Amino acid sequence: MPNLRLSSQSESSNSEPTEWCHLSDEELLDVRMNQLHVRIEGTVLESRIERLYSELEARNLRFRPHFWLSDEWFSPDGVPGIAIPFYLAHPRLARLENHMMLEIEGASEGACMRILRHETGHTIETAYRLYRRRKWQDIFGKRSQPYPEYYQPKPYSRNFVHHLDMWYAQSHPCEDFAETFAVWMKPRSRWKTQYEGWPAMKKLLFVDELMHEIGTTRPQLNSKQHLYPLKSLRKTLRQHYTDRRAHYGIEACNFNDSELRKLFSDSPDHARRVPAALFLRQNRAEFRRYLAEWTGQYQYTIDEILSEIIRRCEELDLRLDRPPAQVRRDALVMLTVQVMNYLHNGHHQVAL
To answer: Considering the entire predicted model, what is its pTM?
Structure first.
C-alpha cells in the first residue's frame, strides 16, 4: 500500500484537541480554527485515502494526490492536491458541523469516497495539464470560463453524468471533467451500460482513452503546496459557520398560498385543530431529510425553505383538517412539488 501523501506540511501537531472537545457548541464556536490542532493521521480519513490510492493503482494510474486539512473540500488551481474539511478529522467537530449545517458532507465512507474521486479528477487535470489539450476543450469547454457563484442546473439533461448531488457537472467545464472522471474511476462502474445512448457517453469514452494514455507517465506538475491549511486560518468557528450559512441560505420567497390551503385549512370550523406550523415543526427533520434526498439540495437550504413555508402557514393561520397520518403523506407530496418549483423555476440557484 502506498504511503499517504501528506508531505512535510502535514497538519500534525504535538497538541491534542482535549482542551476544546468537551466544550459546549456555543463555547466551541468561539475557538479559532488554527487552534483545533486536528490532523488526518490516525483518523478514518487515513484509511479512505489508502482506499483511493488502491483504486488509482487498480486503474493503472501512477499519479497520487496529496492531502491536507482546511475549512472545506477543494483542489486549488495549480496544485495537484486535495483539501479536506476539518470536521471530518474529529467526532466532536463532526457533531458541530451537523448541528450548524444539519448534515455532515462526506461523513459516511461512501459519500467521502465519491467526493475524493471527484477531487482526484481535478488533481489529475492539474497534474497533467489536461485542460490545455484541444480535444479536452472541445469536449468539456474552456477552463478559463469564470466560475459562477451560483448555477441553475437542468436536472433531466443527458449531456452530463450524475455523480455528486445537485447535478454538479453542469456548473463548470472543470467540474464536468471531474464528475466524468469520478464515474469512470468508481470500482465496478457500469458506465458503458448506464450512459448508453447519452451524449455524456462521448465524455466518458474520452476520459477512458485519456487515462489509458497518461496512466503510467510522470505528472507534469508535482507541487506539494497546501493552500489555506487549517493551521493558517485565524477566524473562529462562529465566523466560519456564519459565512457558510449565508452562502447556502435562500432569498425571501413567496409560495403558492392556494397549495398550502389545499393541504391545510383556514376555515373557522377547524380553529381548534392542530396548527399547520406546529405540525410542520414536529415533522421538520424527517421532511428535511426526505426533501434533501429527492431534490439533491443541502439540508440547510431545504430547512430555510421549510422555515419560509412554516412562517407562511402561521400568517395564514392554517390548521389540520384531517388525521395527521393522512396530512403527513399529502404534505410530503406537496412539499416536494413546492420545493422543486422553487429550486428550478428561477427562484433559486445552486451555490458553489
So the answer is: 0.78
